[in-house]
Design goal:
globular; mainly alpha; 2 strands; about 450 residues; two-stranded antiparallel ribbon; single chain
Length: about 450
């Protein structure tokens, strides 16, 4: 994607801004993704009929595992971890499949068994995915990054309207006004603040928005003192995993979707922070995802993947350090070990997150548009590829039931706007730019490049 920096220059992601900045920026990352990371255990726990105390344990287990996965992805071990500023957490792409497993009577143990088995298979097949990077030129990555931002915008709108569509005040002027006020604070701080304030604009806006919500009665802190203050996650608390063939096959489809989405997130953040991503680094990132997902059920959590909204935060703040995100991982672990801290963060009203989310998610889409601006559109089919790829990604957003009549394996993949855009863009790029006369022309006109430096015509050398 980018020419490798000279050996004497450090990678931008290796900058360490110091303890205070790491904590502040790391907390900003946690606040940005907190609603998303607790959404999956809330949905699955309620579908499984867990009582409130057990549901709380499921949530804290997901927070704890998200922190461990984030440390693995950002700091890395040999063969594991992309060493990029990527926050990890429970993947939302498996919710429908996990509920289907629950409905078959397998319960949470069947879900955990399916996640473990499918993640092990995913770990085995990651070398295949790590070698497809040459099929991710700016043409493809631009489509995927744009779609990531557009896919997340309904989440921001839902938060801005109150977060709970069944609530009587959903979409009220009070909620939307609070979201608009938070958005205005972000814009003012970005425009008028110095560099440090601008980088913390999201965090400051969330804090001010929460205080304003508390003053107007839209934030409730009465439940903070209820429940335990500290506690270690229990191993296999919800039962030992059981392994059912049908559940494992269904979950493996989810793992394929996760691998596609994580590949897109790794390439997207690499493009945003202007660092080199090659097949080895991509493979390390995918293996970290699969290893984290394999271990997650031990603590009572589910499949792990990178959070796209935090890619947007990296773009907004310009803070490229992976150590910042690693501190965010430490905060997630602390939240998992201290439920009281999680209850404090949970008091942030959804409209406040919605106001910040409009900037965050819009920035992701804008980053994709910026990438697409580097693509050559004369004398080729790239404009059609962009139109079709983004169109495929938008369909699940505007028509969530579009794929209901399709086979389960197909709908599982294409009901994710991110994965459907990636699949369509990759296939169309292969057909139009890597086969026949188009491929020969591209090869003849392109200069020798490294694996991760595709040409702007949509093909790779």
């Amino acid at each position: 994607m980018h020419a490798p920096a000279p050996a004497t220059l450090p990678r931008p992601e290796d900058e360490n801004p110091g303890l205070a900045a790491n904590l502040a920026y790391g907390l900003q990352h946690v606040l940005t993704m907190y609603g998303g990371i607790i959404a999956v255990p809330l949905i699955i726990g309620e579908a499984a009929g867990l009582p409130p105390d057990e549901l709380g344990l499921l949530i804290t287990a997901c927070l704890f595992m998200g922190g461990l996965a984030t440390l693995l992805q950002t700091l890395g071990l040999p063969l594991f971890g992309s060493q990029l500023p990527l926050v990890q957490g429970v993947s939302f792409s498996g919710v429908a499949t996990m509920i289907a497993i629950l409905n078959t009577g397998g319960g949470l143990p069947a879900i955990f068994g399916a996640v473990m088995a499918a993640s092990l298979i995913g770990l085995i097949v990651t070398p295949v995915f790590s070698r497809i990077i040459r099929f991710f030129p700016p043409l493809v990555t631009g489509i995927v990054i744009t779609t990531i931002g557009l896919t997340l915008m309904p989440v921001a709108a839902l938060w801005a309207m109150g977060g709970n569509s069944a609530a009587p005040d959903f979409g009220s002027m009070g909620h939307i006004g609070l979201a608009a006020g938070t958005l205005a604070i972000v814009l003012v701080l970005t425009r008028l603040g110095n560099a440090a304030v601008s980088r913390l604009s999201i965090l400051i806006a969330i804090l001010i928005g929460t205080l304003a919500a508390a003053a107007s009665g839209q934030a409730d802190f009465s439940h903070v003192a209820q429940g335990g203050y500290f506690g270690l996650p229990s191993l296999f608390h919800f039962g030992w995993p059981t392994f059912q063939a049908a559940a494992i096959v269904s979950m493996f489809i989810v793992i394929i979707v996760t691998l596609v989405e994580t590949s897109a997130d790794i390439l997207a953040v690499g493009d945003i922070i202007d660092t080199r991503i090659d097949s080895r680094r991509l493979g390390n990132g995918l293996r970290a995802d699969m290893l984290s997902s394999l271990i997650a059920p031990v603590f009572g959590s589910f499949t792990q993947s990178a959070f796209a909204q935090n890619v947007g935060l990296v773009a907004v703040t310009g803070v490229k350090s992976r150590y910042v995100v690693a501190f965010g991982g430490l905060i997630l672990i602390a939240l998992g070990l201290a439920p009281v801290m999680g209850r404090v963060v949970a008091c942030i009203p959804p409209p406040v997150l919605g106001g910040a989310g409009i900037v965050l998610f819009g920035t992701v889409a804008a980053s994709g548009i910026r990438t697409l601006a580097r693509v050559e559109y004369e004398g080729n089919a790239n404009l059609v590829i962009v139109a079709t790829g983004i169109g495929a990604g938008i369909i699940p957003i505007i028509a969530p039931r579009f794929y209901d009549a399709f086979p389960t394996w197909f709908s599982t993949i294409f009901q994710s706007g991110i994965s459907s855009a990636a699949v369509v863009a990759i296939l169309m790029n292969l057909v139009f730019n890597h086969t026949g006369a188009a491929a020969r022309t591209a090869r003849a006109s392109s200069r020798p490049q490294a694996l991760s430096q595709p040409t702007t015509s949509g093909t790779s050398a």
